[in-house]
Design goal:
single chain, alpha/beta, D-Maltodextrin-Binding Protein, domain 2, 2 domains, 10-stranded mixed beta sheet, 19% strand
């Protein structure tokens, strides 16, 4: 009977060695996969409509990475649902690096601070690639608005609590606007839109009294007289809007509202592929024409490491949680 079990014992003895060989082969396979990446077109998922600052950044990097790799890079806009539609589109795709999420502070930080039950976790469901850019906001009103300065807007809002409304394209803009309410000791009412571009259109059509929006999407409209910019939410004026006061000059020095854009993939993506994507974004960002483009924008190019991006996310989430509590913003 003992001899009958010997072949089975010999097989079981070989099993751990076979597993070890398979385990050793896996990193090599992933490395080879990363070396060949990308071997087909990629797609960038943007959780906002076209025309937003996030969309503009996505298209800039898509064009350059396409040139670097010889592969097409399609930008797909998936707006709505506080960015959830875009997030789920990215996370439901195969975790092979060919679907990249180009998100913003709203989807990658502020949602985690303002939703009671978030259908995803920005810190564990995504693997960070890099922070791409960061830029201030502008406070805009319709071109025909009676408000010509931020002080006039705030003074009227104090006299008529709840009478004025603001357009908001995401939870981040809601948070910024409520932060403005808190700092200025005013009460205004939110009018939600699917994205920053739609909120700007709401201001242009005079359907809302004001909006705090990404400067990138509003500068040309302000320069063309289609909206009126009351303040630029940075310590200094923008050279692109030299006639618009900085937020310090406008009398609210603590209201330093910034938007940022970052790239991430599913956390299940092989680390070697994530590293390859980071290298591609870095190469694209260091290209002379991309740097020259950003030198003419209100947005600053960043290009962080994945670890730096993850720490920045954590810091932002904690900051917005504190702010939401101070401003008494109800969790959604």
């Amino acid at each position: 009977m003992q001899q009958a079990f010997r072949p089975r014992r010999r097989f079981l003895g070989l099993f751990p060695a076979a597993l070890a060989l398979l385990g050793a082969a896996a990193p090599a396979a992933h490395a080879a996969e990363a070396d060949a990446f990308p071997s087909r077109p990629l797609r960038f998922i943007v959780p906002f409509p076209s025309g937003s600052g996030t969309d503009t950044t996505a298209r800039m990097f898509a064009k350059k990475i396409g040139e670097l790799t010889g592969q097409g890079v399609a930008v797909e806009n998936k707006p709505g649902g506080n960015g959830f539609i875009g997030v789920q589109t990215a996370l439901n795709a195969p975790a092979d690096g060919y679907t990249v999420f180009i998100g913003s502070n709203s989807t990658l930080s502020t949602n985690a601070a303002t939703f009671r039950k978030l259908p995803y976790n920005p810190l564990t469901d995504f693997a960070p690639i890099t922070l791409l850019s960061r830029g201030p906001c502008v406070i805009i009103v319709p071109a025909g608005s009676p408000y010509r300065t931020l002080s006039e807007l705030l003074d009227d809002a104090r006299k008529r609590p709840g009478a004025l409304n603001y357009g908001t394209g995401s939870i981040s803009y809601t948070l910024y606007s409520e932060w403005l309410n808190e700092l200025a000791r005013i009460k205004t009412t939110a009018v939600p839109y699917k994205g920053a571009g739609d909120a700007i259109n709401g201001v242009m059509a005079a359907n809302v009294d004001f909006a705090v929006v990404d400067a990138t999407g509003a500068i040309e409209l302000a320069r063309g007289g289609k909206v009126r910019a009351l303040a630029y939410t940075a310590p200094q004026r923008s050279p692109l809007l030299p006639d618009v006061p900085s937020i310090v000059e406008a009398g609210l020095p603590d209201f330093l509202a910034y938007n940022w854009v970052a790239a991430a993939v599913s956390a299940k993506t092989p680390p070697a592929v994530v590293k390859r994507l980071q290298d591609l974004f870095t190469q694209a960002g260091n290209a002379a024409d991309v740097r020259e483009y950003y030198s003419r924008q209100s947005t600053r190019l960043i290009l962080s490491s994945p670890a730096e991006m993850r720490q920045y996310q954590k810091d932002e989430i904690q900051r917005w949680k504190r702010l939401a509590a101070v401003a008494k913003i109800p969790l959604q």
